[in-house]
Design brief:
about 230 residues, 6-stranded antiparallel sheet, 3 helices
């Protein structure tokens, strides 16, 4: 046992009143201060972790009111993603995942139908660059908002099976009911920050897509209150 081990052993088992000044200083500087600092840092980090709010990932929120006073709220998310996909022809795509939330804030049932064709949308200057839009059947819920890709885990199997087919969402919302759905966008030979929004013009639906400085407005369905 070396002298440092003997010193430490003696410090722990000798009453503080019996210890010389220099041992007390050693105990205070080398043991107590680091221990107190560690405890305070742990408390601080725990407090920050408990009080930091989760990001809601909502980009835009708009309320639409019809002539009868019925209200529809639409929320559009920020993008997540950054992964890739290769189709059966060997073409490579990057993708972003978005979601839209529709809330029927009226006392009347709300019916909507949304459809994307199996087409490409050339919104970029280069004819070789384009986007594809899809509506997978996976159920989006609020508890998935903080997850990777918003919890959309079956994108590849869906694209493998439905890549060349139109995709569809159809729903009747009861009074005060909400509905979330995913919208993945594939980008071929294109880059840029994505921002999107579901836009209502009377009973018609349009999906606005901005990729960098380029944008398009895609007709995509109908929405109306049932009489």
């Amino acid at each position: 046992m070396n002298k440092y081990m003997l010193c430490s052993w003696w410090l722990f088992f000798t009453p503080l009143a019996a210890k010389p000044n220099y041992e007390l200083k050693y105990f205070d500087c080398c043991i107590m201060k680091p221990l107190v600092t560690f405890i305070l840092l742990t408390i601080c980090l725990t407090t920050v972790a408990q009080t930091t709010p989760e990001r809601n990932w909502v980009d835009t929120e708009v309320k639409y009111t019809d002539a009868a006073g019925n209200v529809i709220m639409v929320q559009n998310s920020l993008p997540k993603g950054g992964g890739g996909y290769i189709d059966v022809a060997g073409k490579k795509y990057s993708y972003v995942i978005l979601w839209t939330r529709i809330v029927n804030e009226s006392a009347t049932p709300l019916k909507f139908m949304m459809k994307f064709p199996a087409d490409t949308f050339a919104i970029f200057p280069s004819p070789d660059s384009y986007i594809r839009l899809f509506l997978p059947p996976d159920i989006m819920t609020p508890d998935k908002i903080q997850l990777v890709d918003y919890g959309l885990t079956n994108l590849k199997p869906f694209l493998d099976a439905e890549f060349n087919r139109p995709s569809l969402q159809r729903k009747i919302l009861k009074p005060n009911e909400e509905y979330y759905f995913y919208i993945p966008i594939l980008l071929h030979q294109a880059r840029g920050t994505a921002r999107t929004a579901l836009v209502l013009k009377e009973h018609d639906l349009f999906y606005k897509v901005n990729i960098g400085e380029h944008s398009t407005l895609i007709p995509c369905g109908r929405i109306y209150f049932e009489n």
